[in-house]
Amino acid sequence: MTAIVSRRFALSLASSILAVAITGCGGGPDGDAILKDANKNNGERLANAYSFYQNKNGVGPSDVESFKAFIQNDIPADLKKTMDIPSGSIDELFVSEHDGQPFFIRPEAPQPTTGSLQQAVVIETQGVGGTIQVFYTGPKMVEAPAADAEAYKSGDKDIVPGPPGMNQ
Fold first, then answer.
1. DSSP string computed for 24-59
2. CA–CA dist 142, 123 (Å, integer)
3. Which helix H or strand E contains 82, and what residues bound it?
4. Average pLDDT for residues 126-133, to the nearest whole number?
5. What's the pTM value of the predicted model, to 2 decimals?
């Protein structure tokens, strides 16, 4: 069962970043390099782990503690190593390198029914210079006005697929 879940996690991440890899690479993709590139900072790591959580549970974590337990216990060690997730304490993973503050983790976002919906799930709490970094499933990161933080936290700024140029 663990091997099936491990494969499911790897496939979930690979499918969510495959489009980026294909458009950005001239040759055949190196799986580890793609995973490392999609997990360059704590926000990206958490957003990808959030996608894994949704894939397994149908909904995002209810709180930070259950999310930490999932990362520690349910993401396979080899995948954590590739994603640069620490094997011991993961408290620092939940702190933004950008503003030095703990992230807001959106509770219980339902798993999208369409693969192209991107959800804001990891949001800086303070930001720098009036902007916050927002990390989406998908993966995607945007810098946004700090005044818009509540709209991201509530899901009002999720990116719904639509005609080109019409995404929120």
1. H-SS---HHHHHHHT-SSHHHHHHHHHHHHHHHHSB
2. 10
3. helix 77-83
4. 98
5. 0.80
